[in-house]
Amino acid sequence: MSVRQEKIASVIKKELGTYFQRNATSVGKGAMVTVTTVRMSPDLSIAKVYISIFGGKDNDDSFDHIYSQSNSIRYEISKLVRNQLRKMPELHFYRDDSLDYAQEIDNLLK
Fold it and tell me: What is the Cα–Cα distance from 78 to 70, expressed in whole angstroms?
């Protein structure tokens, strides 16, 4: 990943983290949403956002809600970063279940 890709990814990760923290009840349906990784496409038009969801009643439902709200989330974030980025990339959300996977392996080893 180029330096420019990394810089844009870090700006988006920071702003999304703050956004999910402020809007946990409306966007994440009460669950704690953490942005674990942001990966940029080489042409900077797509940002793959990996999120972890904890503490919700139904984490799959929370993820589906975030996924369905991706355009409005993109709009809100673009207002925050308009002085730093020329064009706001599309946000593609993916679940980061690496912690669940690690815990499952840990349980199997016990």
Answer: 12
**CATH number of the domain to which 11 belongs:** 3.30.300.20
Helix (H) or strand (E) holding 48: strand 46-54
- Do residues 34 and 56 make contact, with C-beta atoms less than 8 angstroms apart? no
Q: Please tell me the distance from the alpha carbon of residue 35 to that of residue 95, in angstroms, as a whole number.
A: 10
Could you give the 3-state DSSP secondary structure of residue 41? coil
Entry pTM: 0.83
Q: Structurally, how many domains does the chain consist of? A: 1
What phi and psi values does residue 104 have, to the nearest 5 degrees?
-65, -45
- Characterize the bridge pairing of strands 46-54 and 32-40: antiparallel
When pLDDT is averaged across residues 58-74 and rounded to a whole number, the result is 88
